[in-house]
Write a structure and sequence with these properties.
Largest sheet: none
Radius of gyration: 24 Å
Low-confidence stretches: none
Oligomer: single chain
Mean pLDDT: 78
Distance between the termini: 87 Å
CATH superfamily of the largest domain: NADH-ubiquinone/plastoquinone oxidoreductase chain 6, subunit NuoJ
Structural class: mainly alpha
Number of strands: 0
Strand content: under 5%
Number of domains: 2
Number of helices: 8
């Protein structure tokens, strides 16, 4: 009954929306960057849950693998390597906080006004299986087979090139190290 009162959305969608907004606010308001990155990972997980509820399983998996997996690990490594401290932080005046809140509020009002009439059409979702992996695979292997195969060959060539470049650098370093040790 409560979900029917709030825009007719399912209760799970509202719970994950609340978690997403709460974690996103924690990301930008927390002083500790490591905790901010962990809250950002939780934000990506809740966004993936939204994708699953919207019947877009492929987007949910890609979101988890790319953002919550790879990019967040990269952020954590960068934060650990930078060794941030309070002394290195720039001083921020409070006027910027009010300006940021005002700008975010205006953006929220504009988005709410623009999506007000189209929200019913978005929630109906006439194509029920458009985000499913099965339908995406069917389209990839029928309509877009040649670009799919060409991109696979391109990725394979890039991977082989990266391995060869990595080996070439190591071989050049050992040759340079051997020539510096042996004066001839």
């Amino acid at each position: 009954m409560l979900s029917a009162l709030i825009f007719g959305l399912p209760i799970g969608f509202l719970v994950f929306s609340f978690i997403t907004i709460l974690c996103a606010l924690y990301v930008v308001t927390n002083d500790n960057p490591v905790f901010s990155v962990l809250a950002l990972i939780l934000t990506f997980f809740s966004i993936s849950a939204h994708y699953v509820m919207l019947n877009a399983q492929f987007l949910a998996v890609v979101n988890l693998i790319v953002y919550a997996g790879a990019i967040m690990v990269l952020f954590l490594f960068v934060l650990m390597l930078l060794n941030l401290s309070k002394e290195n932080e720039p001083k921020v005046k409070y006027g910027w906080h009010f300006a940021a809140v005002f700008a975010a509020g205006m953006l929220l009002i504009i988005l709410a006004a623009s999506l007000h009439k189209s929200s019913e059409q978005i929630m109906r979702n006439p194509a029920q299986d458009i985000g499913m992996v099965k339908s995406l695979g069917k389209v990839l292997f029928t309509d877009y087979l040649v670009p799919f195969e060409l991109s696979g060959i391109l990725f394979l060539a890039a991977m082989v090139g990266a391995v060869l470049l990595g080996k070439r650098d190591k071989n050049n370093e050992t040759e340079a190290g051997d020539s510096s040790n042996n004066p001839s």
